Amino acid sequence: MQPETYLADLDLPSDRAVDFLDARDLPPPEPLQETMTRLADLDGETVFVQLNDRVPQFLFPKLDEQGVAYETRETDEGVITAIWDPDE
């Protein structure tokens, strides 16, 4: 499945590039570490999308601290979390 397919039901900017991480096979804490590393390098014109096998509960406080926008949905494929800069 293409990363953009996971974004169809999310309320986020649709005109941005997508950086996608399939973290379903990564053991904890690798999904959190990889997401934070990639977010540090992300420009404001890109939406970061993480696909995980569980709700990334430890990620949410870190995203709140950074002031980024995010939305999470549970799907048959896993848990989708899209993260973007709301000011861009």
Describe this structure in words.
This protein has 3 helices and 4 strands, in the order H-E-H-E-H-E-E. It is of the alpha+beta class. It has a single domain, classed as Translation Initiation Factor IF3 (2-Layer Sandwich). It has a 4-stranded mixed beta sheet with strand order 1-2-4-3.
Task: Provide the fold topology.
Layout: H1 3-6, E1 17-22, H2 30-40, E2 46-52, H3 59-66, E3 69-74, E4 79-84
Parallel strand pairs: 1-2
Antiparallel strand pairs: 2-4, 3-4
What gyration radius follows from the Cα positions, in whole Å?
A: 12 Å
- The CATH class, by name, is Alpha Beta
Q: Sheet with the most strands? A: 4 strands, mixed
The low-confidence runs, each spanning 5 or more residues with pLDDT under 50, are none
Based on secondary structure, the structural category is alpha+beta
Sequence of secondary-structure elements: HEHEHEE
**Molecular shape:** globular
* DSSP helix fraction: 25-40%
The end-to-end span amounts to 27 Å
How many helical stretches? 3
The total strand number stands at 4
Q: Which strand order do you get reading across the main beta sheet?
A: 1-2-4-3
- The tally of structural domains comes to 1
Averaged pLDDT, please? 90
Query: What is the CATH topology descriptor?
Result: Translation Initiation Factor IF3
Share in β-strands: 25-35%
Which architecture per CATH? 2-Layer Sandwich
